């Protein structure tokens, strides 16, 4: 119980710093704000800021969440090693991750905008995506009984995550109400992917 409270508190502080940097960047521009300003806006000390992030650019990029343990277990319980079926199961796993760590659309839109404006943010965003892709490839490799760096898990992870990123980007640019969920957008991108592969 204590560990759960500690984890939730860390997640909350992480989120508060991330939200603070986005709010200040929107008001003043990322280049014009300092770590001290971000820390004050988030209500934390400068030392606490650096316990969570290496720089203000790192604070912009909060990164993907962790794959849900139950969804991973369900994926690993699948017996088929046929690539098309593994890809379908992997798509369901990634959809579960989107639902478990529902992003804020305005935040996501701003992160993408800052990435386009600032090469350092773009580099960190791509590094986060690449790290998550390696994690996904590792899970696929466990199912297939091979190494994460082998061709099949690497390719399946890249393909599935491309569809997820496409859906999230489309959602971030959507003019639908704020309560609109990213899940249908990701589902459409995934369905299109499988339709293309089936032709």
From TrEMBL:
Keywords for the protein's UniProt record, in alphabetical order: DNA-binding, Transcription, Transcription regulation
Residue intervals of the HTH tetR-type domain: 11-71
Record PROSITE patterns: HTH_TETR_2 (PS50977)
Entry-linked Gene3D superfamilies: Tetracycline Repressor, domain 2
InterPro entries reported for this sequence: Homeodomain-like_sf, HTH-type_TetR-like_transc_reg, HTH_TetR, MftR_C
Record-annotated DNA-binding residue ranges: 34-53
Pfam entry (one): TetR_C_14
GO MF annotation list: DNA-binding transcription factor activity; transcription cis-regulatory region binding
Name of the protein this chain belongs to: TetR family transcriptional regulator
